[in-house]
Amino acid sequence: MAGQPTPQPQENHLLEALPESDYKRIQPMLEHVHMPLGHTLYESGGQLQHVYFPTTSIVSLLYVLESGASAEIAVVGNEGVLGISLFMGGETTPSRAVVQSAGYGYRMKSNLLKLEFNRSGAMMHLLLRYTQALITQMTQTAVCNRHHSIEQQLCRWLLLSLDRLPANDLHMTQELIANMLGVRREGVTEAAGKLQRAGMIEYSRGHIRVLNRPKLEKTVCECYKVVKTEFDRLLPDMKRHHQ
After folding, report:
1. 0.85 surpassed by pTM
2. Structural fold of domain 149-220
3. What is the pLDDT of residues 84-113, one digit of tens each?
4. How far apart (Å, rounded) are the C-alpha atoms in residues 224 and 220?
């Protein structure tokens, strides 16, 4: 935004965790990009031209059914990268990537990322550990959607989003949240109302402010802790940098 400093690449925790020599080598390959709310970075089945390293934005990975219905399978923010299929041996992905919280990030051409990955250095090891953590998030999301209440799912979604943002505020309509969670809007309205009456959040006109995070963490199901613990275990350098 006008008047605000441009986010630097190292505001992405993966990029910051790189050794200085590796970071300096790839820095000229990084292109600063705006990531507006609702923007689709790639469609399911589409050819991936870039990988994205968010800095101040959050992106949802969605699986879209033939009917057009969708559900979120993971969120990626300043802790990670979008486009893991490029360095995992594929050129396309079955998911859609949509910006759920507007902001900025950096992108890198796919051929350059693959060259860097094939160096078998720090970047490769960091990306592989991140991929394992992301798979854990996807797996736990599937379990959560099957076994836990909409209220617990909403708490998980809020906490995962907050972990990837610098403040306690999110701009997101109930309709978009319902699409992310793959549930009816009425269910989100009821769950958000319960959290608001309990003093955990304040919700108005697409703006959500978390008022009591400790209480939110007590209400959330075990899925949030499983995902966070795995990220901290697999990416200890990032955890140390951002405590």
Report:
1. yes
2. Arc Repressor Mutant, subunit A (1.10.10)
3. 988 887 777 888 999 988 899 999 999 999
4. 7
